[in-house]
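so the lab meeting is tmrw and i was supposed to have these ready like two days ago... anyway. pasting both below. for each one the top line is the aa sequence and the line under it is the structure tokens. i havent really looked at them closely yet so no promises
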Amino acid sequence: MNNIATFLRSSIGRKLMMALTGLFLILFLVVHLAGNLQLLAGDGGEAFNRYSYFMANNGLIQTVSKLNFLFIILHVIYSIWLTRTNAAARPIAYAGKAKEVQSQWSSRNMGILGTLILLFLIVHLKSFWYEFKFGSIPTIPAGTYDGLDMEIIDAYSYIAAAYAQPGYVAIYLIGMTVLAFHLFHGFQSAFQTLGLGFSKYKKLIQTVGVIYSILIPVLFAIIPVVMYLQQS
């Protein structure tokens, strides 16, 4: 155990934890997007409400959800740790701009991007996850949907009401823009930490990373925009 703790405190260990937690969150975004796209099913919310009920009552899903929160916390902790360590190791700024020219804007501002994403995540969790768990969301009577003989929350109507507000839609769009920049560097950085960034798969990883960092945030952003326009 002491050897593991020592490794996780080392520079390599910290980077590995950032990479592994980051990859888990990347996979989670795909799953989360697949569920959220059901908001656009055009069935009055039945598909999404069924999905929401399943997510809230499946033991395996709830375990993964708790792991997701844990990995978010670990990702934040290790990112702050690495940022502070790197800053302390390089107290004097570069004399020229050569380093900045060679590096991507997103890689030089991962701390800022990560902070903005964390703020967005706090607002997002408070607006939805917290309200679904502890709020007073309207319910749907038992028997409304085939196979569901119990009262369930009307998650769809609550989200539709939230996305009818232009201010929240704007916040969501800003959040997805920041996420795109964060993913653009983070995706490739994670594979590089795992030793694949300089392999024969480098070009493939870069291509997939660019597609992923654009496609996932765009699809997430489409949801509130479409729902807002439908209610305008």
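ok protien two:
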Amino acid sequence: MRFSHVILAGDSEPTFIAKSGDRALPVSSLVDDAPSSLQELVERGPAEWARVREALEAGRGEAVSLDGAAYASAVNRPPAIMAVGLNYAAHSGELNLKTDSTPTVFTLWPNSLAGHGETTTWSREMSEAVDYEAELGVVIGRPAREVTEEEALDYVFGYTVVNDISARNIQYSEAQWSRCKSLDGFTPTGPDVVTADEIADPQDLHIWTTVDGETVQDASTGQMVRSVAKLIAHLSKGITILPGTLISTGSPGGSGFSRNPQILLGDGTTVTVAVDGIGELTTHCRVTD
């Protein structure tokens, strides 16, 4: 199954939709007392997921047109956004940062969430060193605490695409990384969340980025230093990861800040990050004086 939040033409608030083939169906048309968001669906648990799936497979629901629609963040109201840094050796090396024996973990703030096709705006005064980072996003489906690596993927509801946009000047001037990656609109997700059953192996996915049509990242999630399962097992030690939590699993090499010449996001730039089998996530950039 695939789920999105879209603002349909003429509407002002997002509609929670499921996608079946080329059809987009409001979840409210599939089942009675329907969840109104991904977070609500996840929190209701496996029985609710099965109810929605059964309705989709039975051909229920009324399709709507996505012509003129705009995407909101695929993940909405997550209880937490956990981000993992330095999880690809090539990216650690190009930033001249060391991959530690344990994951580098920080949180992102909810104001940073944005949707596919949105415009992210920042001021020139704030940063002229804004970078892209393609990442596989993992949405946790049920409370996870002290889980083993072997069982960790059983706790995943689904996967999405994340662009971990980063203001490098702030990143290198502060001891922590939350603020440099949490400016408004700096965490686009989507367009969809794809349920875990559609992804046979999260460590066998092509991940890439284009900036104004030029490919700048081209890698595989198999190059992660720590797999999705290892990350979940580590993060759940002594901490209950709540349903709906988004884990952004790190970016491969190819960052624009480390290139010579640099390829940074600027006024009018269009950046697309993508993961095979999950989707392509596009962000337009606007820089103000």
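from a quick look at the 2nd one: Residues 2-71 form one domain. The first strand starts at residue 2 and ends at 7. will dig more after coffe
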